[in-house]
């Protein structure tokens, strides 16, 4: 029996339904991009992101979701996604969008798409070793380097799209008309760096070197105080691309040991947190889209926070756990009773739009534009209601689950094992069974001798009533939080040596409290139990968030076991 509490690997199994269900089987398995649930019946539409961007996101997400959950559902559709992705490459090594049946856009290599392409090729190669993925990735990285405009200390792309004949305007190169650097260069660094770490590709690392210099020294994307430049040329301070660039810079700073770069990231990250709610709702940008939260932005916050925590700022582990427990998982579409759907394709527009079983096909997806209290965003400000799903957020949401799951337990140098997130998770070293938010209790089942075991304790739990008790094993003892020298970096309770077969129960008092959260001028009264939101007021209109959560004096239990893969993917 295990606690019936949040299990990220289970959520990953659910999202596979949407990853596969978004495919348009009548249009060569090209996935739909948007969905509108407010419409009756609901519908999905294609868009100009359908090609390298969408396929890259879904291949990456499917790979991570399968690794977490062990699910094999939809393998044939995933195979079609991979075949499509490889088909979008031209001889120059770049991924090109294709002309839609309605002729609404031209073939071009959009620079935003290239980030999802190298991301997916990297994950695909890491998981399978498929030589097709590496061959395509090597050509792709070489192309990204070849087309970059190179100056003394920075590289950049002078337009948002590259054509087979080159950049659309030589004048753009001459007068340095670089479009938003965060969107086209900054976010690209993250998968490039990982590809270098996995394969040793030097071109990928060199791109990171000169793109990071562009962002920090020359771009103007971030203001002196760390805030986002909201000028129109910088996409109005678009949060997904700003924080995604911070994620990339943090990873590059950690890789190179550049403390000044990490300081740059931390300053801007801390400013970004002031614009978000404590439970993880983020603005879309700082102008017209500011009321529209993208799951993509939240996942960027999660990933950046994890890297900063690894670099010596352990307070961010708690920040990230709040995001995982709340707006990430609360924004996953599991209840579909409120969505009206059609059972036939008679109203469909081939290659453009479908009404067919939209609710069933998108179960498990993550919100594209959610409100703090509602799956759908339809406020009186900004652009009003636009869409409820975006395929990019399905990919990002899956990656957010993976980042939480893969970093919950970590083996450090010197034999230390740390529990970072107080979520249920199995591993070859130990299993963590979490009774939160019902009880302040963790049960650790140790599978392998550990020289030094440490567990993060939430800041709201204090320290004097925290204790760890060995309930089975050879060495029965109790460690209390008010003992001297049992705390590491303020947040980790040091349990010391643990033996295979030990069971350790860690307990601490729960805290019930309220906060007032501001979301771009909107105020919400939020009730918490520990790190979990259990009520929010006012309530949402279409599919209210948070108010369906139930809290018990004792955590409910269920039959089950934890996933313990033979090998671990690390991002």
From TrEMBL:
GO BP annotations listed: carbohydrate metabolic process
Lineage: superkingdom = Bacteria
Which InterPro entries does the record match to this protein? 6-hairpin_glycosidase_sf
State the name under which the record lists this protein.
Uncharacterized protein
Q: Say which species the protein is native to.
A: Cohnella zeiphila
């Amino acid at each position: 029996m295990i606690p019936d509490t949040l299990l990220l690997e289970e959520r990953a199994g659910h999202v596979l339904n949407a990853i596969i269900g978004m495919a348009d089987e009548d249009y060569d398995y090209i996935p739909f991009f948007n969905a509108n649930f407010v419409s009756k019946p609901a519908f999905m539409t294609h868009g100009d992101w359908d090609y390298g961007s969408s396929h890259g996101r879904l291949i990456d997400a499917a790979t991570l979701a399968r690794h977490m959950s062990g699910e094999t559902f939809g393998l044939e559709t995933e195979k079609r996604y991979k075949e499509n992705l490889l088909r979008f490459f031209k001889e120059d090594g770049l991924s090109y969008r294709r002309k839609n049946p309605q002729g609404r856009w031209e073939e071009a290599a959009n620079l935003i798409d290239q980030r999802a392409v190298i991301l997916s090729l990297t994950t695909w190669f890491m998981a399978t070793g498929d030589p097709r993925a590496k061959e395509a990735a090597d050509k792709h990285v070489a192309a990204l380097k070849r087309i970059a405009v190179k100056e003394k200390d920075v590289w950049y792309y002078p337009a948002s799209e590259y054509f087979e004949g080159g950049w659309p305007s030589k004048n753009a190169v001459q007068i340095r008309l670089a479009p938003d650097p965060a969107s086209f260069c900054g976010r690209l660094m993250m998968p490039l760096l990982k590809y270098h770490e996995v394969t040793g590709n030097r071109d990928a690392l060199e791109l990171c070197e000169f793109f990071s210099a562009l962002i920090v020294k020359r771009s103007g994307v971030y203001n002196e105080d760390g805030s986002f430049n909201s000028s129109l040329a910088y996409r109005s301070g678009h949060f997904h691309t700003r924080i995604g660039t911070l994620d990339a810079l943090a990873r590059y700073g950690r890789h190179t040991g550049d403390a000044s770069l990490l300081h740059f990231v931390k300053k801007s990250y801390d400013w970004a947190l002031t614009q978000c709610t404590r439970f993880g709702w983020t603005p879309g940008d700082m102008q017209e889209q500011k009321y529209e939260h993208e799951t993509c932005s939240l996942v960027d916050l999660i990933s950046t926070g994890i890297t900063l925590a690894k670099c010596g700022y352990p307070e961010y582990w708690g920040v990230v756990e709040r995001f995982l427990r709340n707006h990430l998982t609360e924004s996953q579409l599991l209840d579909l009773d409120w969505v009206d759907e059609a059972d036939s394709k008679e109203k469909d527009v081939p290659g453009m739009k479908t009404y067919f079983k939209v609710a069933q096909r998108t179960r498990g997806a993550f919100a594209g534009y959610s409100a703090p209290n509602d799956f759908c965003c339809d406020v009186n400000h900004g652009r009003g209601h636009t869409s409820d799903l975006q395929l990019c957020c399905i990919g990002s949401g899956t990656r957010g689950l993976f980042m939480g799951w893969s970093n919950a337990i970590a083996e450090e140098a010197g034999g230390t094992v740390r529990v970072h997130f107080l979520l249920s998770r199995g591993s070859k070293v130990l299993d963590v069974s979490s009774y939160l938010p019902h009880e302040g209790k963790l049960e650790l089942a140790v599978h392998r001798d550990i020289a030094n075991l440490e567990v993060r304790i939430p800041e709201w739990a204090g320290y004097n009533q925290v204790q760890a008790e060995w309930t089975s094993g050879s060495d029965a003892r109790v460690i209390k939080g008010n003992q001297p020298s049992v705390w590491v970096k303020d947040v980790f309770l040091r349990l010391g040596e643990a033996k295979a077969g030990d069971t350790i129960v860690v307990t601490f008092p729960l805290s019930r409290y309220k906060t007032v959260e501001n979301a771009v001028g909107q105020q919400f009264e939020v009730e918490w139990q520990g790190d979990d939101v259990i009520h929010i007021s006012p309530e949402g209109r279409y599919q209210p968030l948070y108010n369906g959560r139930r809290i018990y004096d004792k955590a409910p239990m269920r039959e089950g076991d934890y996933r313990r893969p033979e090998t671990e993917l690390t991002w």
